[in-house]
Amino acid sequence: MNYFFSKDIVDDKIILSNKEMIHCVKVLRHKVEDRIKVVDGKGNLYEVEISSITSDKCETKIINTKTIKNKVKVHLIICPTKNHKRIEWMLEKIVEIGVDRVSFIISKNTIRKNVNMERLNKIALSAMKQTQNAFLPEIDDCIKFKDIFSLTSSKEKYIAHLNKKNNIHLNLSINNTNSRCIMIGPEGDFTDEEVEYSLKKGFKEVSLGISRLRTETSGIVSTTILNL
Predict the structure, then answer these.
(1) Over the stretch 162-214, which tens digit does the pLDDT of each residue have?
(2) How far apart (Å, rounded) are the C-alpha atoms in residues 181 and 75?
(3) Do residues 87 and 123 make contact, with C-beta atoms less than 8 angstroms apart?
């Protein structure tokens, strides 16, 4: 069954509008009294019955509600890649895997200084619905390296880099908490000064293995490990 997304929830009613309404009514041909499933992106899954359809909205009544618990909150802090399509591909995959927040940062060696937020939010929403995931991640536009630390509240904080060869693998560093964050650098990696600054802010150095991974691959691998 297809999932639909809405934040327009009041009492026992949920309204589908704009593209969600068009997809439900015009594309999938749902009618009054049909039952569909709606998510709010915050872990709530609703079984609803369509009660009315107008030219600009589809009104539904909640039949059942299921709240899904997010066992681990994962925050990925990552430098955008030069090729925006690689960012889009990565975001799609990590939403499928599970991520609570994605923050794009600008470090000294970052080449791309901006991302297409509208496009990324659309990809995240589509990935959430297609994989029947109930959580829609918060996405932060490009932030300066030193500004990200005031936005990070995770209990476990890691920075992956290649400046040292003896860092412990991320898989061996995880503690038994439900709030985890990792920072991934650009193609040219973080500078020594940036690594030292992050350590002073409570981050721990880790490795993602012996292979030299692309930035977007590192984002997928680290997100997978942090969800374990």
Answers:
(1) 887 789 999 999 998 899 999 999 988 999 999 999 999 999 999 998 888 99
(2) 5
(3) no
The answer to whether residue 140 scores a pLDDT higher than 90 is yes
State which amino acid sits at residue 173: S
Give residue 206's Cα distance to chain centre. 21
